[in-house]
Amino acid sequence: MEPIEIKQEKDESKVMTGSRDVNLWLEGGYEKGILTLFYGPAASGKSNFVTLASCHLAKKDKKVVFIDTEGSFSVDRIKQISGGIPEFILKNIIILKPTNFYEQKKAFMKLLKEYKSKNIGLIIVDSMVMFYRLELAEARKRGLEEVRRINNELANQMRDLYEIARKGDIPILITTQVYNDFLNEEDWLKGKEAGVNVVGGDILKYWSKCIIELKNKNGRKKAIIRKHRSLPEKEFNFEIVNEGIIKRGWL
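RESULT FIELD:
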């Protein structure tokens, strides 16, 4: 009697990340129909996670919209990931480069109207808060009402992205920056560490159904699931290599 071959079914509710190790960690990849938020300090790997995902979906002949507010999109990085043959991938990546908070808003509103007709498989915003942070700094000079207005605008933009994700069943990956609390001298002498705060805070966390924190300590990188609809909080130690992201065993 011949053995029965059991094929593993692809989870149609998720898209692969571009890394086998990250796929296994997330048990299939990034969920469709939701916002996934990455936060962490500079050089922790945020742009690499989203760039890797964009390459994978573009190779599958899906359109990827990459909203680049920080100048993070790198053709050289695409060449590394693709093995030096980026033409087909780049053909499928639509790069938008807003120059202020209100151009960012217009980009989201345009996507909200056109996502159905564009064969979009993935949307990336890297980062969501670059221009928000600048607007907020100016708003604080003008008073509390201006601060509220800017926060409301950020919430509206997140709501637009959430609507696109839900109605289009599209995964949307966004990144944000972090800042540290200042320690007083007494706490510093006691060896306490400054707390990490997410720029955009509760506004970004509310609309994001998956939240991943990235850390970088002495070159050793770690990802931690902080919020997920079906997975527990768990960690993933990783290294960024030319081809993408691989698992590492350090503590």
